[in-house]
Amino acid sequence: MSDVVIWHNPRCGTSRKVLDLLRAEGIEPAIVLYLQTPPDQATLADVIARAGLSVREAIRSKEAAYGERGLDDPGLDDAALLDAMVADPVLINRPFVMTPQGVRLCRPAERVREIL
User: Fold this and answer.
1) How, if at all, do strands 30-32 and 5-7 pair?
2) Domains of the chain
3) Catalytic residue (one of 1, 4, 5, 12)
4) Whether 12 is catalytic
5) How much is the average pLDDT of 37-52?
């Protein structure tokens, strides 16, 4: 099994580009299709923290579900946001990549090079 993991959405151009960059470096990552197999709240919180992000920085605010769920409410705490992200994983920003050198939300795609 690879020591590099990507939370991947094949419909996302940035996610596909990151996967291509990894493969160009000779890395075949473990691919987690997080929309089909979302992380649990503890795993998601850990990955976000290891990436050096706040939960708000890791949520996809452009998704319709963000507004529909009222997630723009500044009074919502991290637990509420994480619950929403686990329940509706389209709200998880992508792609997250985990390597032995660290974790990054690879937007833009070239950020993956920081942890290779």
Assistant:
1) parallel
2) 5-115 (3.40.30.10)
3) 12
4) yes
5) 97
